[in-house]
Amino acid sequence: MTITLRPTKETDISFVMELEHAPENSPYLLPWQPERHQEPLTATDIRHLIVEQQKQANPSDMSSSQGWPNHMIP
Asked: From CA 59, how far away is CA 49, in angstroms rounded?
């Protein structure tokens, strides 16, 4: 399986919220409010990424990292 990482868009926030609130993910995530998910879209030291399976081009997961300058991750 080949995956692609791309920056999260505002239109992805509902998908991210679904992932956060899925029972199987609750032990690993602290859910954010929708407004909190919008902050990384313009922040310079937070990367919020969507994981896509290349053949499907549909979101399949997400990742958020802090403390990395935005220019360090394509």
From this structure: 10
Domain boundaries, position 38: 3-72
Distance (Å, whole) CA 55 – CA 65? 25
How far apart, in whole angstroms, are the C-alpha atoms of residue 10 and residue 41? 8
Total structural domains in the chain?
1
Which own/partner pairs from 6-11 qualify as long-range (CB within 8 Å, at least 24 positions apart)? Answer: 6/49, 6/50, 6/52, 7/41, 7/47, 7/48, 7/49, 7/50, 8/37, 8/40, 8/41, 8/48, 8/49, 8/50, 8/62, 9/41, 9/50, 10/38, 10/41
pLDDT digits 0-9 by tens, 21-63 = 899 988 888 888 888 888 888 888 887 888 887 776 565 555 5
